[in-house]
Amino acid sequence: MPGGAAAPYRDVPAASPPPAAAGRADGAGTATTEAYARPVPLPPEPESVLGGPTLPPGPDVDIDALRAAVAVAADRAAALPQCGPADSASTDWLIGGPTASLASPGCVVDSAPGCERHASDMAIIEVDSLVKRYGDHTAVNGVSFAVEPGEIFGILGPNGAGKTTTVECVEGLRIPDGGAIRVCGIDPRRDTGELRQLLGAQLQESELPEKLKVGEAMELYSSFYREPADWRELIDTLNLTDKLDTQFRRLSGGQKQRLSIALALVGNPRVAVLDELTTGLDPQARRDAWDLIEGIRDRGVTIVLVTHFMEEAERLCDRLAVIDSGRLVALDSPSGLIARVDDRQRIRFRPSAPLEHAVLAALPEVASVERAGSQLVVTGTGNLLLAVTTVLARNQVTAADLRVEQTSLDDAFVALTGRPIDA
User: Fold this and answer.
1) Gap between the Cα atoms of 181 and 27, Å rounded
2) Which of 75, 93, 195, 224 could form a disulfide with 22 if both were Cys (CB 3.0 to 4.6 A apart)?
3) Long-range contacts, stretch 96-100, CB < 8 angstroms, 24+ apart
4) What does the pLDDT look like over 107-126, one tens digit per residue?
5) pLDDT tens, 305-347?
6) HEC profile for the chain?
7) Distance between CA atoms of residues 166 and 170, nearest Å
8) What is the pLDDT of residue 172?
9) How far apart are CA 53 and CA 24, in angstroms?
10) What is the pTM assigned to this prediction?
């Protein structure tokens, strides 16, 4: 940077450990937090992307040293001064309670004297004309959107579309080449310390040391925040209490994902970024994760969900940004995106007796009537099903094998981008 100033953060590979920790590991083998500069012995490791310790995967990590670090960090965290009421470090946020204030770090918005409220009508994330290049390749090209407080905002697109690069710029993990980003009113490039306290991230790929236990990971990561959630209550909410003494390598895929979410939420964030959360999970584990995401949103956390699963996006997201080849293609609710393409319905059935097409075509809800083998296909809008079945009953015709088809989010994506999401 000009004048020899240190860059506020640096580019890193997309596959990084979860940036839930706000500490910093240096070459001397000590970890500190920017807020309190408390020394904690750790094995010498490279600096992580958000200033937290990089916890190396694999069996070679000195697990005893790491466990000692957990104990020291917990003792030092307990001794730190707190702002606000005595219970301000609890999981009040889990039941819609106070959250950390932007105006006065370490204070609780609803109860600490002198703290200012964040404007409720302000977008919690604002991205304006974002550009990110890698050499000659432009991964993100002029993307703009705003995320409202309390919503699940989805970023949808095929692999390589620029979704992860976009959210990594929001998280402060990558330096944009153009445009502006604000998260809770702050600039991720300049206010990285405050960003760590406000935003939790579950990265697309993340690992912990194989022998690190669930309880040890939660205690360690909790120590890096000014106002952490009660991690034991958080673990209980995520149904991991019986896994506190289980090593990371012994967890199932779904349990690892839940632990990753817990590490993203232990800092009591206002925003949680979940990147391809359910990739690799079996259908039941995926649906359990969906229920969990809805529960987190219901407790007041704004969620940015990166996905390429249409069913996931359609079920969970209040609004969707469709990104393809680095550009924002569309921004709307799932139903709004579908309506842009085609809001018509199709009813297929096999009539029990001959029926003149004109009888159905005369209905105002019907756009067309076609025969497909032994079936009739009726296309239209509005309350089409009621209109068709009423006419059939009046003519004493039974509709066998009746099926109602509507335009799906898959159909909308193909219409908007010209290709299926898995192409």
Assistant:
1) 31
2) 224
3) 96/299, 96/300, 99/268, 99/270, 99/300, 100/197, 100/198, 100/226, 100/227, 100/268, 100/270
4) 333 322 333 333 345 799 99
5) 999 888 999 999 999 999 999 999 999 999 999 888 877 889 9
6) CHHHCCCCCCCCCCCCCCCCCCEEECCCCEEEECCCCCCEECCCCCECCCCCECCCCCCCCCHHHHHHHHHHHHHHHHHCCCCCCCCCCCCHHHHCCCCECCCCCCCECCCCCCCCCCCCCCCCEEEEEEEEEECCEEEEEEEEEEECCCCEEEEECCCCCCHHHHHHHHCCCCCCCEEEEEECCECCCCCHHHHHHHEEEECCCCCCCCCCEHHHHHHHHHCCCCCCCCHHHHHHHCCCHHHCCCEHHHCCHHHHHHHHHHHHHCCCCCEEEEECCCCCCCHHHHHHHHHHHHHHHHCCCEEEEEECCHHHHHHHCCEEEEEECCEEEEEECHHHHHHHHCCCEEEEEEECCCCCHHHHHCCCCEEEEEEECCEEEEEECCCHHHHHHHHHHHCCCCEEEEEEEECCHHHHHHHHHCCCCCC
7) 7
8) 93
9) 5
10) 0.66
Bridge partners of residue 320, in order along the sequence:
154, 332
- pLDDT value of position 74: 56
Residues in the chain with pLDDT values less than 50: 1-58, 80-120
Helix axes 214-222, 63-79, angle to 10 degrees: 40
Tokens of 321: 């940004």
For residue 317, the one-letter residue type is: C
| pLDDT (0 to 100) of residue 386 | 94
10 Å Cβ neighbour count for 262? 25
* Distance separating alpha carbons of residues 59 and 163, to the nearest angstrom: 32
